[in-house]
């Protein structure tokens, strides 16, 4: 859509909201019925009880974002409603709605893609056998003021499957990274990755907690440059005192070991004033843990156990066996094998180099 058309759309939506307010209608209701259930729970609870073109006389409430709208006639409109756990159809039928026919037509003409809506009605199935809710009450909770991308139907992604960013609804990389909120709304794969990241971080915390580690928070800004060769960000406070953003978690965690804590860890942000590319960012998150009375052999065992337990092997078979212990190799030998250097051979702990060509 052209820029001028997008601007006109935005102005028209603002004018519509102003008209609602002048009529005494609040376009942003403060709440929706407390009995609302998730779409995932809605499907689990009623899907098996329904046949094609059928409905139950049970009233339920759902809420989420409208991703698509299909107008069959002035009296029958289908919507795709998404929440954080799933999606379902809304089959808005004038004969079942609590609105008069003219009110029904006017109201649904004002409902747009991207609006957050709440519906109360009956569980049902369409003639094609698709699960849906047939609403008696339909409320727009938060109107979308901008043109909302028309979401594409894609195969559901799961860890281990290849991703296809070029097929995303929003596939311009600059727009995706600049507007992550929009990226996560229309590209479901991206939202799943964020959720997996959160679960991995929660697992690491639980794992270290069971091992007796204490989670701490160390200063992000320091008066002195922390250890390391990376270039720090320099900031100035109101008293014109120079401070440095940390480039590592290491220093303060080691000071806690000196203080007497035997096992500490932190998952936190680091900041480095350096170049940016696809694998380097000005700020990033790391996990560092330190423990007394242990060496690298102890850490090898801990990492094996952490990775093995983190993978949910019970749900789907894994192509790679992650049962510990993993094979331990010297770094140079591993590099030789990875780059297929034919002349590199190892024997009895020593490395012999005989490059050909």
UniProtKB/TrEMBL annotation:
GO terms for molecular function: ATP binding; lysine-tRNA ligase activity; tRNA binding. CDD domains: LysRS_N. One of its GO terms (biological process) is lysyl-tRNA aminoacylation. This is lysine--tRNA ligase. Belongs to the class-II aminoacyl-tRNA synthetase family. PANTHER family: LYSINE--TRNA LIGASE, LYSYL-TRNA SYNTHETASE. GO terms for cellular component: cytosol. Keywords: Aminoacyl-tRNA synthetase, ATP-binding, Ligase, Nucleotide-binding, Protein biosynthesis. The keyword Ligase applies.
